[in-house]
Amino acid sequence: MAFALKKRGPSNFDRASDGSMTLMEHIRELRNRLFRASLGIVGGLIVGFWLAEPVFQLLKRPYCRLPGTTNALGQCQDLLALAPTTSFLMKLKLALWLGLIIGGPIWLYQLWAFIAPGLHRNERKWAYVFVSIAAPLFAAGAVLAYFVVDKGLGFLMDSGVGGLSNQFEVTAYIAFVTNMILLFGVAFEFPLILLMLNFTGVASARRLLSWWRVVIFVSFAFAAIATPDPGPFGMTLLAAALSLLYFVAVGVAFLNDKRRGRGRETYGGVADDEVSPLDLSTEPIEAGARVETSAPIGAPEPIDAPTPIERRYDDMT
Fold first, then answer.
1. What's the rounded Cα separation, in Å, for the pair 228 and 215?
2. What SS3 class is residue 70?
3. Residue 80 in 3-state DSSP?
4. Please, where are the H alpha helices in 81-211?
5. Are 217 and 124 in contact (CB under 8 A)?
6. CA angle at residue 52 from 51 to 57, to 5 degrees?
7. For residue 279, how far is the Cα from the chain centroid?
8. CB-side neighbour CA atoms (13 Å) of 169
9. How many CB atoms lie within 10 A of CB 239?
10. Distance between CA atoms of residues 156 and 250, nearest Å
11. CA–CA separation, 21 vs 26, rounded Å?
């Protein structure tokens, strides 16, 4: 007896009647995008491993400016390594950070290529704008963090107890500097949150401006916690930068509201607890013409009538 093997067709997960991508196709695309993004990060890691030493010397420069960190020949003392693997792991850590930055265009593009097909055209346009603004803001925050660390370390050493050697452990020092750069960079993305609230219609520019007291207070409180030195220099600098970015974002929000015509709505000047005025004037409506019929209203129509007689609802009286 011969048996015929029937070829199995695609399952419901592998096909879509409307031509759109199915669940399995989305999973395969996500796998491919993640693989390509990983290749970009690995490529950046290789380049970052070569650049790790110059970057380490750049991060070490604020430490070398401290008093008591140079020897008799004027050379900067080395940071302490408390384990045999500390030097290699530190270089690998810096290479990984550099790999994420260098390979950023690749893995960000793969992430965008996976998300973009599900967005509308205007959503993609605003995403391009926000990403183009986010990168310079993060870079500006990183530069400000490096400047604050450079000035803040000297204040910390001068304000501490005397008789201590200014020689730091390398892991703690690099973690301190990189955490400050990351913290300042993320803090500088605060104006983008305000612009997102305005461009999506959640908050108007006038409402954003009404928060200025709270924003300035939170900026100074955040700066007091984030800056390394307890002195007023770093705290004031960071708080002033965040406040300035806030007012710039509010200015852009006002321009956006003016462009979209917000504030000129019918009930734009009515408060939340105020009753809006209602127009109670009525317009007279003329009655329609009555339909003349041969039979009295309510009588059964003849069966052989060629066409039914159209009646209005107000004629049935």
1. 21
2. strand
3. strand
4. 86-102, 104-115, 121-159, 170-187, 190-199, 205-209
5. no
6. 105
7. 44
8. 6
9. 22
10. 36
11. 7
pLDDT per 10-residue tile (average), the chain, 317 residues = 43 48 83 90 90 89 79 75 86 89 85 79 77 85 85 71 70 87 86 83 85 90 77 78 90 84 56 63 72 60 54 52
CB 190 within 8 A of CB 242: yes
* Cα–Cα separations (whole angstroms), residue 7 to 4, 62, 220: 9, 70, 69
pLDDT attached to residue 15? 45
Backbone angles phi, psi at 29, to 5 degrees: -65, -40
What is the CB neighbour count within 10 angstroms for residue 245? Answer: 22
Q: Kindly give, in sequence order, each residue whose CB lies less than 8 Å from that of residue 127, ignoring residues fewer than 6 positions away.
A: 112, 116, 119
Label residues 281-298 b or e (16+ Cβ within 10 Å = b): eeeeeeeeeeeeeeeeee
Q: Let me know: does 71 contact 9? Beta carbons within 8 Å.
A: no
CA dist 40 and 288 (Å) reads: 76
Only one residue has tokens 């965040």, namely 242
- CA–CA distance, 131 with 249 (Å, rounded to integer): 15
Residues near 203 by Cβ (< 8 Å), separated by ≥ 6?
A: 194, 197
Q: How far is Cα 66 from Cα 151, in angstroms, rounded to an integer?
A: 10
How large is the angle between the packed helices 23-64 and 170-187, nearest 10 degrees? 120
* Token couple for 201: 């219609």
| DSSP three-state, residue 17 | coil
CA dihedral 66, 68, 69, 72 (to 10 degrees): 140
Q: Residue 217: its pLDDT value, please?
A: 92
Nearest to 150 by CA among 85, 74, 237: 237
Closest CA to 184 of 216, 219, 231, 230: 219
| Burial grade of 305 (CB within 10 A; 0-12, 13-18, 19 or more) | exposed
C-beta atoms surrounding 63 within 10 Å: 21
